[in-house]
Write a structure and sequence with these properties.
This protein is α/β, with parallel strands linked by helices. The protein is built from six helices and 13 strands. Strands 7, 8, 9, 10, 11, 12 and 13 form a seven-stranded parallel β-sheet that branches. Strands 1, 2, 3, 4, 5 and 6 form a six-stranded mixed β-sheet that branches.
């Protein structure tokens, strides 16, 4: 079924204009009487029907909302990678149930913060919105403004650092050691990994250094593999 994000969705009749009208009318080519699924990006889903399609707007009729309980909150703290690797993490991480993404500048990042992140942030948020629409999620992950690692602050969250030097604590054991409802954060280094001083600083503030196994994974693979492990342990994958 065709799906669309309408953040202001509510039961009843609703007029749709602008980019979302374009997506429905031009891209998806919806017609009057066609059934849709609408989601508000915050965990609610609506059965809907197209009432009419005009030149620059359309009207939809939304039924009562259905709440979709969110999974455990998992934030991906991703060291800024080169090229379009971050876009892959955003897209596939959304499909794997990430709750939020935080692009972060780390010591070994080739990509640096340059004060022009606002335009990138808009694109990144469009990517997660589209991925959420396609994979059937009722919510849309947050994409937080890029910061330096020293400025990352997470409360009421168990922070797990994917550390290629760690050998004794598997990610799966770390996840099992905390409550099933507790929020998690995955810290993933860029190409070249995290600097030892960064790992030491995170651990000194209560983070756990964990391993995904003996193989060295690319930065764009590590977060996705870790998300898959967590969602599997939470009974949501596989």
């Amino acid at each position: 079924m065709k799906r669309v994000l309408l953040p202001e969705a509510a039961a009843g009749s609703m007029r749709v204009t602008g980019p979302r009208f374009h997506h429905l009318a031009i891209v998806l080519r919806v017609r009057a009487e066609e059934a849709l699924e609408v989601f508000d990006g915050r965990g609610q889903v609506f059965d809907a029907k197209v009432v009419s399609v005009e030149a620059d707007a359309l009207t939809v009729q939304l039924g009562a909302p259905r709440a979709v309980p969110p999974p455990r909150r998992v934030t991906v703290v991703q060291g800024l990678p080169k090229a379009d690797k971050l876009e892959l993490v955003l897209q596939k991480g959304t499909e794997l149930g990430a709750s939020a993404f935080w692009p972060v500048a780390m010591k070994r990042c080739v990509v640096k913060l340059d004060g022009k992140e606002e335009k990138k942030l808009e694109r990144w948020r469009r990517i997660v919105e589209e991925a959420a629409r396609q994979c059937g999620r009722a919510d849309v992950p947050e994409v937080l403004e890029p910061v330096r690692l020293s400025d990352v602050a997470l409360t009421d969250t168990t922070v797990l650092v994917l550390d290629e030097a760690e050998r004794s604590l598997p990610l799966s054991d770390a996840v099992r050691s905390v409550e099933a409802t507790r929020s998690l954060a995955l810290v993933v280094g860029p190409e070249g990994g995290l600097d030892r001083s960064e790992v030491d600083a995170l651990v000194s503030h209560g983070a756990l250094a964990v391993t995904l196994g003996p193989n060295v994974l690319r930065t764009e693979t590590a977060a996705l593999a870790a998300l898959a492990v967590i969602r599997h342990l939470d009974g949501l994958l596989g």
